[in-house]
Amino acid sequence: MKKPLATCRVAGFIALIATLSSSYPGTGVVAAQSTVQSSPVAYIEGPINSEDLVLIPNTRWVIASGMSRPPGLQGHLYLVNARDRSWETIYPRSGFAARHDAATYPDCSSPPRQEAFSAHGLNLRPLEDGRYTLYVVSHNARESVEVFDVDTRHQRPMFTWVGCVIVPKTIWPNAVVPLPAGGFAITSTFDPTIEQREYVEKMSAGLPTGVVAEWHAGAGWRLLSGTALSGNNGIELSSDHERYLVNAWSGKSIELISRGGVPKIIKRVQVDFLPDNLRWSGKRLLVAGQMTSASQLLRCAFSSAAFCSAGYVVAEIDPRSLASREIIRSPGSTDFGVASTALIVGDEIWLGTFRGTKIAIFSLRK
């Protein structure tokens, strides 16, 4: 399959020096433990900028996002067969099915424009009888969470677009998690309505730039006070659904935040990498992130480079103490770098990246 190329002009960025203060409860430093591997055992070649990955439970299918970076590059959703590692494009494609649920999602009546689609964070809500709701953070065509019905009662999953939720203008959405009573929560990394220099300077100083926001049908959006972090990024719920786990990307920290009432930070731990996505993978909670400075990473992210080669880390997180056990630490290479998400698939760990044309595979076998 062909790999599209695109170029863009480098955007001038101030160096991000992210160091959070210790004025919150539970602040600590997480020490690295037992590294398993530093080099992938295999690659899946072709999917472009697979920033996030999610496994459809009890199937062989993995859904991968595809960000449209550099600007002008076509974004995608991909479906990957974990058995033979073949892949195909879910969206955009001709004849894609759409069935608008206007009662739940009145914001938009048709799928995003295919030529301006960009898929970012992903998550799944299990329904009944082999069906799921797929939430996709999307940019470019509209800043939104796109919603798809996924039906696995066929030889291959069938995808149908059912609606979208437009985010408030003050939100730049990143990651998404479904909520148990319906609706979902997202992270916003920064406020896109303010000057770029202003929010970059705030991130450089370790000041809050983002927020967590919840959306429910009929009620709309609610921005959660007490959730402003330096570069809000990955998000998941604790297994009892009573706490959020949120990554502060430029703050190099992982946060445990209460739900209900007025949210508050229960615990915070610092890490020595830029924590990107969080992912429950079975009963294991994984975090993947970049082993570089934010300023160096952004120089590549906003360049016309086809890939970024900086190092990366994958760690398993205790969802209560936030203690971590390091699984992978790699210096990166021109084949694969800057991992943004980690997913357990059988006896392997699959890694996605926000800039590159491969999914990296590590073995869990000893």
Produce the secondary structure layout.
Elements: E1 27-29, E2 42-45, E3 53-55, E4 61-66, E5 76-81, E6 87-91, E7 97-98, E8 117-126, E9 131-140, E10 144-151, E11 158-166, E12 173-178, E13 184-188, H1 196-204, E14 211-216, E15 220-224, E16 232-237, E17 243-248, E18 253-258, E19 265-270, E20 274-281, E21 284-291, H2 294-301, E22 311-317, E23 324-330, E24 339-345, E25 348-353, E26 358-363
Parallel strand pairs: 1-19, 7-11
Antiparallel strand pairs: 2-26, 3-4, 4-5, 5-6, 8-9, 9-10, 10-11, 12-13, 13-14, 14-15, 16-17, 17-18, 18-19, 20-21, 21-22, 22-23, 24-25, 25-26
Structure characterization notes:
With 366 residues, the chain is mainly β. It has a single domain, classed as Neuraminidase. Helix content is 5%, strand content 44%. The chain has helices at residues 196-204, 294-301; strands spanning 27-29, 42-45, 53-55, 61-66, 76-81, 87-91, 97-98, 117-126, 131-140, 144-151, 158-166, 173-178, 184-188, 211-216, 220-224, 232-237, 243-248, 253-258, 265-270, 274-281, 284-291, 311-317, 324-330, 339-345, 348-353, 358-363. The strands form six sheets. It has a five-stranded mixed beta sheet with strand order 1-19-18-17-16, with no helix packed on it. A five-stranded mixed beta sheet has the order 7-11-10-9-8, with no helix packed on it.
